Amino acid sequence: MLEVLRNDLFECAAEESKLSGFYVLRKCQPLIPGFLPQVIVYENSGTIINPETPAVINSELFRAIEDGDIASISPNGKIRVILSRRANHNTLLLTERCDNRCQFCSQPPKDGDDSWLLEQAILAICAFNLDGEIGLSGGEPLLYRDDFIRLLDTTIEHAPRTRLHVLTNGRAFADLSFTKSVAKRTEHITMSFGIPLYAANSTIHDKLVGAEGAFNETVKGIINAGNSGINIELRFIPTRQNAQELPFVAEYANRVFTNINQISVMNMEPMGWARKNWDGLYLHPLEYPLLLENAAKISRQNSTPLYLFNYPLCHLPEHLHELSVQSISDWKNYYPKECSSCSMKNQCGGFFASAKGKFLQSPQRYV
Ligand code: SF4
């Protein structure tokens, strides 16, 4: 098995796998039932204290969790810890549906009603009640609009300390009345929205996201959201098709939009359709340092911070290292063996676990 920084997937015995669904994991006696059913995790059968309560015996899982973490248990006996107090990022999937078809989508959309995901997410947020940030992703998380508003209202009522960061294509914000409904909730909960704009023109953006008209809706959405006071992180993934657009998008962020708190330039993740389209899309970062520099300069001039996400430090010129963030979630983050003796490892974000094999762009360790 690939060595990731934090394993989130465990096996349970046949008897235990009857516990299918979302659960609060307990390491001690269950509390009064809340938003989700509870299951006690025991290190071994000798430590069982309450034979009446649903239980999982797994020493590895016991050591990996904190009391109150949230897991999904599937009928095939897999336990995935979906909200962890030890994780560097926590993210919930609200839907697998999407109105874009991005060429590099790491989680290709599926059709069909999956509204149960959002319902489970609401319960998970409330049960976890984190004093910290939870990411909400998809698919397109704003597709079920009224239900998304209900998610916000329930979070405000039951988990008001939880901050939400939503990854959206922003098209739903083209609807001003929906945007105002979301903006109203920002008075009661801390929220930000990561919205990608892949070009400063519709031809390139629409082609990359596989949806005609998407650029116009996303731009209108970002304008509506910014003008309504919603915090926006503007995202950009450089590829062979659009890397040259990065400085223009940085200009756009500062001249056309308001309330852009940050520009995040993201190195492509070799997952989903990005793997299929890799050769036509992937551009090694050392092929576009000037574009990164120009975009960073424009952002600096306009006092909008620009950061580089998912870049191994040895894939960047040294003067750009200060912009790099250790951003890969711990459950999918790994360092190839070359990194073990690299002097920069502690500062470096390493690689996606999915890069292992033919998608790994060689690390060049620092001595
Ligand atoms: S060799 Fe590994 S640890 Fe060192 S900079 Fe490259 S990716 Fe990071």
TrEMBL record:
Cofactor or coenzyme needed: [4Fe-4S] cluster
Gene3D superfamilies, sorted: Aldolase class I (3.20.20.70)
All residue ranges annotated as the Radical SAM core domain in the record: 84-301
One Pfam family linked to the record: Radical_SAM
Record CDD domains: Radical_SAM
SUPFAM superfamilies: Radical SAM enzymes (SSF102114)
InterPro entries found in the cross-reference section: Aldolase_TIM, Radical_SAM_PqqE_MftC-like, rSAM, rSAM_paired_HxsC, rSAM_sf
Chaperone as UniProt keyword: no
Entry keywords, A to Z: Iron, Iron-sulfur, Metal-binding, S-adenosyl-L-methionine
Protein name per its UniProtKB record: His-Xaa-Ser system radical SAM maturase HxsC
